[in-house]
Specification:
Layout: E1 11-17, H1 19-28, E2 33-40, H2 64-75, H3 78-85, E3 91-94, E4 103-105, E5 111-113, H4 116-120, H5 122-128, E6 132-134, H6 139-159, E7 165-169, H7 190-206, E8 210-213, H8 236-254
Parallel strand pairs: 1-2, 1-3, 3-7, 7-8
Antiparallel strand pairs: 4-5, 4-6
Length: 255
């Protein structure tokens, strides 16, 4: 009888971020990765900031997922969710895509993320328009974000997740697979976004995080992507490379 290859248990992956990490797992993870939890559309600045009383009672949201993500962001529930799943999580994938629109700071100091969902729901947008918008990439945004990154790294160490965390430093694609320049996202070009992100990734590297870095000329946007054309919606080979390198890094830290 021919020996059959042993079945491997998929790694349980917690995702903090957005489409870059989630699409990598969904489109290239196959049976090797399973999602333990997915925290999306929540800036690190808004995490731990409970503004849930400000969330509209009955916003007209077409997607239950979008509503859940907005409610989670208003509650700032990142850390308790990670605490809940930490004992059974093999890997935390973190991408910074959802930082791109900045945050709204209310008069009482609470913060919510200016996510793509918030801007699409009039009742929620009306609430956040009453707060001060702090744009991503600005000195003020970085000054708010950097100390949160430091305390987050400490919390991950307490949970035993720091060594299991991989930050995806995947640049926005400059061009599409057919050679066209990628479109702006909320008025920001890929070149501008990549420059804004630089000091955030540098700070995480200084804090000791493991970063998986791809180069701008090594990624292409896919006009046929399931979520549509955007500088951070890539071709399949990008997701395959991310997963291959994530699994290799995980194997190295486990050996």
């Amino acid at each position: 009888m021919t020996d059959q290859p042993a079945e491997t248990t998929p790694l349980r992956v917690a995702i903090y971020g957005s489409c870059v990490a989630r699409d990598s797992v969904d489109l290239a993870g196959g049976s090797r990765l399973s999602v333990a939890d997915y925290v999306a559309r929540q800036s690190l600045i808004s995490a731990g900031q409970d503004a849930s009383v400000r969330f509209p009672e009955d916003p007209q949201v077409s997607s239950r997922f979008q509503r859940r993500m907005m409610e989670a962001d208003f509650a700032g529930d990142l850390e308790p969710r990670l605490e809940k799943i930490a004992p059974t999580t093999d890997l935390l994938l973190w991408d910074l895509t959802d930082e791109r629109h900045g945050v709204h700071v209310f008069d009482d100091g609470t913060v919510v993320t200016r996510s793509i969902d918030v801007t699409a729901v009039p009742e929620v947008l009306e609430v956040v328009d009453g707060a001060r918008h702090v744009a991503f990439g600005s000195d003020e945004h970085f000054a708010l974000w950097a100390p949160r990154a430091e305390s987050f790294s400490d919390h991950l160490r307490e949970l035993g997740l720091f060594e299991k965390t991989i930050v995806l430093q995947v640049p926005w694609a400059l061009v599409t697979v057919d050679g066209r320049e990628t479109p702006l996202s909320m008025g920001t070009s890929a070149i501008e976004a990549n420059e804004k992100y630089r000091r955030y990734f540098d700070h995480l590297r200084d804090l000791g995080f493991t970063l998986l870095e791809l180069q701008p000329l090594g990624v292409l946007a896919d006009p046929g992507h399931r979520w549509g054309l955007a500088p951070f919606h890539y071709t399949q080979d990008v997701y395959e490379e991310i997963v291959t390198r994530v699994l290799a890094a995980r194997e190295n830290t486990s050996s």
